[in-house]
Amino acid sequence: MDAFETHQPREIATHPLHNSFSPRSEEYVVAGKFPRERSSVFDLDKDGSSPLHAAAAAGQVETVRAILGIDKKLCRLKGRDGKTPLHVAAMRGKTDVIREIVSSCVDCVEDETVQGQTALHLAVMHQEIGAVVAIVELITEMNQIEVLYKKDEQGNTALHLATWRKNRQVIEVLVEAIPEESRTFEVNAMNKMGLSALDLLVMFPSEAGDREIYEKLIQAGAQRGSDIGTTTNIQRTTSSTSACQERAMESQSHKDLVKYFTFKKHRDSPSEARSALLVVASLVATATFQASLTPPGGTWQDSYTPDVSQNATSQQPHIAGQSIMGTFNGIAFTLFVFFNTIGFSVSLSMLNILTLGFPLRFQLQICMMAMYFSHNTAMTSVAPDHVKLYCVLITSILAAATPALMRLLEKPIAMLCQLWDSMLQKICCQ
Known about the structure:
single chain; mainly alpha; Serine Threonine Protein Phosphatase 5, Tetratricopeptide repeat; 19 helices; elongated; repeat; PGG domain-containing protein; Ankyrin_rpt-contain_sf; Ankyrin_rpt; ANK repeat
C-alpha cells in the first residue's frame, strides 16, 4: 500500500477504462480485456483519477467489482487530493459502490484525504444522506466504530460538519450510531477552535430546523464548549435512592471518565502518544537506575569484621558499599531488586521500540546496553554476600526475559483484571 499512496499522478494517453461514465467501459471490463492490461488499472490520468475512481463516480457496480477482482488493494489507490475510489463514491452518493468497495476492503473506511477527511466526512459535506447511512451501517457491522470519531485537519468530526450543514437526518444517524456509554463524551468533541457541535449550531443560526437539532443534541448530552468540564454528568440522587444504586452510578461515572481519557486510535495523534510514552519510559528508567545506585536505607560507609577473639557485639559484619537493608533483611532487599529490575528492563524495552527508525539509533542502543549492564553491576555490587547469588540471577536472567514475559502475560493479566472488576461490582451490590 505504500507504493499506492506514493504513486504520483502522471498524464497518460486516453484509455477506454478511464471513460467509465460511458456504458462502453463496463463492456470493456466484462469482455475480459483487463488481464492483458493489468498495469493500466494502477495509472492515474491527468485529472488524478484511475479507472476505479471513474467507475465509482459513475456508480458502475459491475465495473467496480471487475476491477477489484484484479486486485482488491486498488480500492485504496489515492488520486488527486488523496481521494480514494470510496471517497469519490461517497461524494456522489453511490451507495451500491460504497458497499461493494467496503466489502472488499474494510480498512478503506479509515483512509483520509490530504485534508484529513474520511469518506464519512465527504458524504456529510456533500449532503449525501444515503451514503452517510450506508457508511455508518457498514462501520457498525464491521466493528469500525472509531471512524465516527475521526477528525479532519481542522479537528471537525462528522457530527461537527452535519451540525454546520444543519442536516437533522444525518445528525440523528450519527448520534444513534455512537454507543450509549460514550455518547455524552463523543458528541462534545472539540475541534481545533475549541468548538463543540452545539457551539456551531448556536453560532450559525438558521430559520428552520434549529430547534429540532438543538433538542436532539441536548438529548444526547451535548454541551457548549465553555460548559464542558464545568458540569458533572451525574445528578445527585434523591434520599430514597439505595446505596447500591449510588455505587453503581459512581462506578459508571468512573468508567466513562476512564473511557474519555483512554487513547483512541482515530481521535488522538499517534505522535503525541509516542512522545508521552517516551517521557514516561525515560522517567521510569531514570528512577529505577537511581534506585540501583542508592538502594533504600543507603549503603555502609565502612567495613566491619568482628574479631573472633573478642566478645560478639550486636553489630552485623558488613563491607563498605553494600546495602544496609540487605544486611539486616535479605528477603526485603531481594524483593526490591526483583521489582526494580522489572521496571528498569521494561522501560528500556519501551525505549527501544519507541525509537524504531530514529536517526543515530545504533548509538542509542549502545547507550541503553551500557545502562543495562551498569544497572546489573550496581545491583550485584551492593548486594550482601548471603543474597548476592539471587541478585545475580534476577539481574541477568529475569531482566533479559522480562520483555518477552510481558508479551506472553499481557492477555491473561487483562482477563484477570476484568474478572476482578466484575467481582468487585457484584460485591458492591450485595
